[in-house]
Amino acid sequence: MDFTDKVVLITGACSGIGAATALYLAKLSAKLALVGQNEKNLLETVAMCEKEKGFKPLAIVADITKEADVERLIKETLDHFKQLDVLVNNCGISKSGGIKTTTLEAYDIVMNTNVRGTFYLTSLAVPHLIKTKGNIVTVSSVSSSKSVPNITVYTMSKAALDQFTRNLAVELGPDGVRANCVNPGLVATNLLTRMGFNDDQYNAYFEQMVKDTPLGRLTEPNDVAALISFLASDLAKNITGATHSIDAGRYL
């Protein structure tokens, strides 16, 4: 895979899957626009990417739930690189709770980030992707098609992203633009910590997950980054509208 002269915009690039994808694509010579809310962590990702190939990514501190930020990040990317070839919709958030406990405030936070923000960003990116015959890769989840207790709104939001991707594929296919989803299982990132798990709970949960997984291993951020990069590359030129699970067989 080679991304020389390809401009890739990645949201949620401060840590986890987003940072791993940025580093993976930096090694493949991509020109990167990296978006995140935590400036310190974002600049750490930028520094790691620059170290790989000597090309410094564009860092954009932004919140995709804010329309003005979304408009600005697209403008900054186009002003800097003059084109856009790949959009990686990775930014996402989760809140614990089911129908008995989830507040409307928590619902809005999750849906505004995972669905509304992704929808608006993609809508602004599409005209530029049509010009380059580019593509969109959205990070969803295997929970989009599974009943997972205590994260009801999160699973709803990921199901919406799967359907969004299928619609994009049908609508944008005639324009030469592909759209696909990557659907990880539980990945060794800080998602659970942000949901309130302490260290003991975090470690116990992952240990049980490994025992219950056919391949007997966790999915690492770099595993997901490799799949995202493949789908964004010309090697996947005949793949669109697909959801690709990557969970070591956990949900079979």
From TrEMBL:
What are the recorded GO MF terms, alphabetically? oxidoreductase activity
What residues form the membrane-spanning segments?
6-26
Pfam families per the UniProt record, alphabetical: adh_short_C2
Please give the InterPro entries that the UniProt record associates with this protein.
NAD(P)-bd_dom_sf, Sc_DH/Rdtase_CS, SDR_fam
UniProt KW keywords? Membrane, Oxidoreductase, Transmembrane, Transmembrane helix
Question: Could you confirm whether the keyword Oxidoreductase appears in this record?
Answer: yes
Please list which residues make up the signal peptide: none
Q: Entry's SUPFAM superfamilies?
A: NAD(P)-binding Rossmann-fold domains
Record-given protein name? Uncharacterized protein
Q: From which organism does this entry originate?
A: Pieris macdunnoughi
